[in-house]
Specification:
Elements: H1 8-17, E1 21-25, H2 29-37, E2 42-45, H3 49-52, H4 64-75, E3 82-86, H5 96-108, E4 114-116, H6 124-132, E5 137-142, H7 148-151, H8 163-177, E6 181-185, H9 189-198, E7 203-206, E8 214-217, H10 219-223, H11 240-257
Parallel strand pairs: 1-2, 1-8, 2-3, 3-4, 4-5, 5-6, 6-7, 7-8
This protein binds 3-methyl-2-oxobutanoic acid.
3-methyl-2-oxobutanoic acid binds at residues 25, 44, 46-48, 86, 140, 183, 206, 216, 218.
Length: 269
């Protein structure tokens, strides 16, 4: 169990000391409590909420109001971890004033301590504006799911000629803008290693191999609460989906047979 609050400075120190950073997503109060009590360093209310909790086919349907609703629930379950909220699609790329207002809503109404935005050099002026207003920003490069249509699907990035240089330039530009950490998604391990070595701020990998300063997974993937097979980079640590299905079927069978409720489940007269 953790004793003290995680802040962005702690994460910088962890990189310098070679200590791995642990990050997971959460979308509700109860899961947030489990993660916080387990000593997870960073809890991300990802816009993956759209896919794993709300049933959308991508993250593009997630609105700021939806994010605030989930962030506020997670906030109530978190004491120690750093709480980061995703800025959803088009809430930060239109103009800087709107970007700042939207980031501020995630902090004021959602209780986030930092926000995450996707993209490299093309978003650094938005990142700098948010950081300049006193809100910590996490970057996200490589596979950026909000650009899924432009990227041609959820596919590994950083494999083409010039891609690695671009990713390293993106990471430098984000660091210069004041970003405190960068998620690197779906790139080959050697590319993630080069990016990680190129910047002083921590990198958190997902499908990016072992060389990042930390690792993040979507909590539903880790717990086996997904439709179908998760991506191959996921390690599923539990199969709660099957356990839940068995419990629900047992309840239905017992109601139908009259086995539930039994005497111990009702109030005496
Ligand atoms: O939305 C999300 O869950 C994310 C993580 C995969 C990093 O951005």
């Amino acid at each position: 169990m953790r004793l003290s609050k995680v802040r962005t400075l702690r994460l910088l120190k962890m990189k310098a000391q070679g200590k791995k950073i642990v990050m997971l997503t959460a979308y509700d109060y109860f899961t947030a409590r489990l993660l916080d009590e387990a000593g997870i360093d960073i809890i991300l209310v990802g816009d993956s909420v759209g896919m794993v909790q709300l049933g959308f086919g991508d993250t593009l349907h997630v609105t700021l109001d939806m994010m605030i609703h989930h962030c506020a629930a997670v906030r109530r379950g978190v004491k120690s971890a750093l709480l980061v909220g995703d800025m959803p699609f088009m809430t930060y790329k239109i103009n800087e004033d709107e970007t700042l207002k939207n980031a501020a809503r995630l902090v004021q109404e959602g209780g986030c301590e930092a926000v995450k935005i996707e993209g490299g050099e093309e978003v650094v002026h938005f990142a700098a504006r948010i950081v300049g207003a006193g809100i910590p920003v996490m970057g996200h490069i490589g596979l950026t799911p909000q650009s899924v249509h432009q990227l041609g699907g959820y596919r590994v990035q950083g494999k083409g000629a010039g891609d690695v240089e671009k990713l390293i330039n993106d990471a430098h530009a984000l660091e210069d803008a004041g970003v405190f950490a960068i998620v690197i998604e779906a790139v080959p391990p050697d590319v993630a290693r080069r990016i990680t070595q190129a910047v002083h701020i921590p990198t958190i990998g997902i499908g990016a191999g072992p060389h990042c300063d930390g690792q993040v997974l979507v909590i539903n993937d880790l717990l086996g609460l997904t439709d179908g097979k998760p991506p191959h980079f996921v390690k599923q640590y539990a199969d709660l989906g099957s356990a839940a299905r068995r419990a629900i079927e047992a309840f239905a069978n017992e109601v139908r047979s009259g086995a539930f409720p039994a005497k111990e489940h009702w109030y005496s007269d």
